[in-house]
Amino acid sequence: MNKMLFPVAAVALISFGCQQNKINYPMTKKVDTVDVYFGQSIADPYRWLEDDNSTETAEWVREQNKITNDYLSKIPFREQVKNRLEQLYNYPKMSAPSKRANHYFWYKNDGVQNQSVLYYSDTLGSDGIELLNPNTMSDEGTVAIATTSVSKDGRYLGYGIAKAGSDWNELYVKEIATGKTLDDHIEWVKFSSMPWYKDGFFYTRFPQPADGDALTQANENCKVYYHKLGTPQDADILIYEDPENPSCMFNVDVSEDESMLFIYAFASTSGNALYIKDLQNNAPIKKIVENFDNNYGVVDIIDGKILALTDCGASKYHLVAIDPSRPESSNWSEVIAEKDNVLASVSIKVGKLIAGYTQDAHSHYEVYTLNGEYLHDIELPEIGTAEGFSDDKNDNVTFYTMNTFTSPTTIYKYDVNTNKSELYKKSSINFDGSSYVTKQVFYTSKDGTKVPMFIVHKKDIKLDGNNKVWMYGYGGFNITLTPSFGLTRALWLEQGGIYCMMNLRGGGEYGEQWHQAGTLMNKQNVFDDCIAAAEYMISEGYTTAGNIVLQGGSNGGLLVGAVVNQRPDLYGVSLPAVGVMDMLRYHKFTIGRHWATDYGTSEDSLAMFKNLLSYSPLHTIRDVAYPATLVTTGDHDDRVVPAHSFKYAATLQEHQQGSAPTLILIETNAGHGAGKPTSKWIEENANILSFAFYNLHINPKY
């Protein structure tokens, strides 16, 4: 569940470790725009920055980037940081192989390629044949693969590409044997899969937006289509639409035996309805679940029944069998019952169910019969994040990846029949993860709730309060944060920093109750959890106030903005990325209205309006000293439109009472983050790390 400017004085940076001169920011004009909510007037003086097509906005972006880039260019060790990031990034990366119709498919990046390349082979262990290389589709590597789907006979690859970071996709088809791209081309697609059926595939799309509105216009009237190979888009067959509910979005899937189409209907990011279509008899659409109160994900059809993973009647999810002829929940049969851990995934392999659980924010797997009889655990090589087990269900051999905070992706081959894992491919990287330790703690939040947090640092660390700490959080939309390797955190750890990942309420770490505890009128719990994490690190002697970096993106950008406004004294550096900063108007852009189940909207009620206003980052900025802040966003972000960050940065610059910089960096040809080319990733993270090092008075050594 996206001003006229006066001349800018040069940014004066004096010797490292000393206080900086106050920056003379561009003067941002104000307009007399006021909205009235339940009788209360709320000024929005920077409303004009919402117009991403205006020359004034473009000039504001140019001037803000100029002052930010000038500041960053004067950091004496920035090039060293960038060079070290390039060294760390430059190692071969590979995804786990996935089998489909006797082909193995995998992604590979030789080192610093802007985008990973899709390969295939009929045998394991070969170098493979290049099938899809997005690096050839643009000069700057800003075209990314957004989705892929292999036809059941293995003849065709359907794929979607995204340009310049936008969520808009274009769909194409390639003949695998010849590598020829067919004439099929579909536009105005967002968040759609491409499940194959006979000689074509299903997909969803939106109407073409008005000229100039593609990145901001509300996305409505989503429809389900079937595309037959060799035909133009305007000949595609409309399968389903819901004109009475224009805000509803859809996604699609097809059963493995091609007997049934599944349509997922979404009115928000929380909960979905489930519809089916009998493809063998071309029957009308049948609504299995009509409400949006819970989440449903179909695993497949077994003995004529729909095997579905759902939180209906089970906060931590269970697996149920649904008879399409009697879909009422009273007729469901439970296959895998709810447990203490969250059931996050289920896949079928050679007549067995592989169930993936989230156990205190790390992975745990169990194997069952198709009837739900427990067989055994899968012994994972280490504590971390395991993903995979989801390729050809008739092959007893499958693959999965393991990730930890201190080691990059390692691929394992798993034999379902013997329940044995063996190493398949290990990453070779210029980073010694054995020098660090990872531990999990459970600290106490404001209301007494125990919240988990991972802490990573060098083994010989001293708890003398002098350490610099990097804290990362999200806390929303039922999303679970689990251990993963990151090059920026690797570089941070190398310099003696401590890294913390907070598993805040609002996420999915402990099921739907944990999620709901951080939504709507409970949203302040998320911010309290984050503040309590910083206070824990201080009380335990890891660090002191002012030596903490707080980072988050999207909903995590909201987290950073809200928390820093509430407790600016705790943090030395604030890094909100592509954040949802205007909580009174977020729902008016692109897909923003779908987030209302987590946030509520300013029009819902007086109580909800006051709740949003109480933490909205844009509206809770005060005349106080704020920590050093680097806001980041992309000019093609059509999920959280950049106007959020524009208005927030302008307001922060207006009210900053301290000498710390409050800057914004707007990346061109970039979006919400997915598909960002390596070159832009390195450049952006060199900026972020250098900014953090500089403002925490760290002089990195290499």
Q: Briefly, what is this?
A:
With 702 residues, the chain is α+β, with helices and mostly antiparallel strands. 17% of the residues lie in helices and 32% in strands.
The percent range for helix content is: 10-25%
Q: Give the CA-based shape.
A: globular
What is the overall number of helices? 10
Overall residue-averaged pLDDT value: 92
Number of strands: 39
The major β-sheet equals:
8 strands, mixed
Radius of gyration from CA coordinates: 25 Å
Enumerate the spans where pLDDT stays under 50 for 5 or more consecutive residues: 1-20
Oligomerization status of the protein chains:
single chain
Quote the distance from N terminus to C terminus. Answer: 41 Å
SS content category: alpha+beta
Give me the side-by-side strand order of the main sheet. Answer: 32-33-35-34-36-37-38-39
Our estimate of the beta-strand percent is 25-35%
Q: SSE layout and pairings?
A:
Elements: E1 34-37, E2 40-43, H1 55-73, H2 78-89, E3 93-94, E4 98-100, E5 103-109, E6 117-121, E7 129-132, E8 143-150, E9 156-163, E10 169-175, E11 181-189, E12 196-197, E13 200-205, E14 223-228, E15 237-240, E16 249-254, E17 260-266, E18 273-278, E19 286-289, E20 296-302, E21 305-310, E22 318-322, E23 333-336, E24 342-349, E25 352-359, E26 362-369, E27 374-378, E28 385-388, E29 397-403, E30 410-415, E31 420-426, E32 436-444, E33 450-458, E34 469-472, H3 487-494, E35 498-502, H4 512-516, H5 524-539, E36 548-553, H6 555-566, E37 573-577, H7 596-599, H8 606-615, E38 628-634, H9 643-655, E39 662-667, H10 678-695
Parallel strand pairs: 34-35, 34-36, 36-37, 37-38, 38-39
Antiparallel strand pairs: 1-2, 3-5, 4-5, 5-6, 6-7, 8-9, 9-10, 10-11, 12-13, 13-14, 14-15, 16-17, 17-18, 18-19, 20-21, 21-22, 22-23, 24-25, 25-26, 26-27, 28-29, 29-30, 30-31, 32-33, 33-35
